[in-house]
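Quick question, first post here. What does this chain look like in 3D?
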Amino acid sequence: MPQAPATPPTFRLFFLGHEIGAETDTITTITGGRRLDAAFQFTDRGTAVNLTAALELGTASGEPLHLTVKGRNYRLFASDSEVTIASGRAHVRDLQKERDVELAGKPFFPIDNYAPIGVQEALIQYWRAQGRPAQIAAAPSGPAIRIATRGMLTADMPAGRAPVPVLEILSIDGVVWGTETAWIERDSGRLVALTTWAGALPFEAFRVTEAKYNTDAFIKDAAAQRVADLVKLTTATPTVQRGSFAITGAMVITGTDAAPIQNATIVIRDNRIAAVGPSSSTPVPNGVPVTDAKGMTIVPGLWDMHAHAGQTDWAPVYLASGVTSIRDMGGEEQFLVAIRDAIDSGKAMGPRYFLAGLVDGGPSPHAFGEVVADTPEQGVAITRRYHGEHFQEMKLYSDVKADVGKAIIDEAHRLGMTVTGHVPTAMRGSGPGGNGTMVVEAGFDGIAHMALNGESGSDASKAQIAFFKAHHTVMDPTQSWNELSSHPAAIPLDDLLPGVSRLPVPLTRMFASMNWGPGDAAAYKTRQTASLKLLKDAVDAGLLVVTGTDKGVPGFSLPREIELYVQGGMTPLQAIQAASIMPAKAMRVDKEVGTIEVGKRADLVVLGANPIENIRNIRDTRWVVTNGRMYDCNVLWRAAGYGPVVRAAR
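> Answer (accepted):
Ran it through. Tokens below.
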């Protein structure tokens, strides 16, 4: 019989720096060892997320015997697994799939995603007891976990409090997609803090203690480590060309309305396009190295205008898929500023970051992130702070009050910033723009997840489009996210995103756990087609429509967004422009980037085939050019841990 539980260790849970819940871990002694029972609970924007787990450990060195996990680790993603270890073998059930893993005497630990935090603490203690091996086999996360020491830290404390013990800093790879940072007590190995990702968004856990740790210091430290990792990866990643070079022989789709240039030459010097035109009339200067792209097609660098790229792993993936610019729509300031500056300086590779400063109403348990404004004065102060950190835009979220929202909008415009976001509940109105009427009239420059209502060609839809056109409203429809989050199970994910099986294991598991439900595939496709037709109507009317994914599947959702636009009736060129020059116009940098023209930044993608003939060829990325460097996309995919690209021979 289990003995009475010891005092349970408890972790406070944070999402984007905002405290949203807690985990209670109970340790009991059982025959031959001990048992950890974890209750992990939080509320994300009004949605309850609950997960329970039980982990049985032997007495010798904390060796694992049995794990069960059940519940959700994020609003959209589930955990339902069981691992039993016996006789040198682990039997693993992950959702509906089962398999056996032969251990062959190697270190092994059962773990299912980042939650519960107590299981990660047990993993760290097992790693220490095993002599800190370079790699631990794991399931259902994994297949391998790598833990490494990153140094020591003495945590800062508020004035009047004694310093906390020196903490050992660890990096953990393989539990989730992306590197986690853990801080443990040097002698005991107790976990003090952990930064990780829930649904690819920043998530933190801090042990409840009598002394209050400076949580911001941990988040800042983790951000600095991740950027340092990206700088190291950049140094280790070879370039095809850099500095001054030329690309010859390809067809160039400039992104303007002009016809493609056949058999073209592009000369790049100091990260600018020095020349572009037919090879017959565009000479390559003496001494400039040349890359032959005969038979290929070059398009402008692509944009993701609704990104949440709060971890460095996005950087090589975005570049590999042809994305050279993103607008991040809400993350932790410490990380976003650090990675943007590292990329802009040339120290780190990645897409160029444009930043929208997230702000919600509060204080509120439903707030999205820790940055909240309850009064107009607070809203103005937050806007000025974001502006001081060189954010280009403000993003308002759902709980912002009407007077606070108006104050933010006015101050942002005074400072030369634009404003976008969800339509706050307090600012929903009726009129020609539907729910968006009030915010657009108040000064919103764009609306996130913007949807049009009515039937294509109807008087109501025409009036709505005319209203948004008159106010120059930018449409950020995130069609690929709508499809991903709501398509019925009868439509396999690989049908929508060919090659998605190349994803790293943690990402594959995450999307496999989404419960799409039975649904009616035919009815779903009818609704999707109707929505896409309205989008085509908006483009024909002159609205500025931009591609965005709201995270989606890294490296796959942005090309899918472009494909969907063509399915709705846009021409391939219109869809490419929605991913290039239109975002540049929305962010007011179209004089600098967005098309392949002399004098503009050399942001471009070399494709293996012509997307005008078949828009699916937008996925066939071969080389990408950004920040004065040309990379092989296959090399970037591998750097991000993705499987190899399978292509037909040219």
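The first strand starts at residue 10 and ends at 15.
The chain is about 25% helix and 30% strand.
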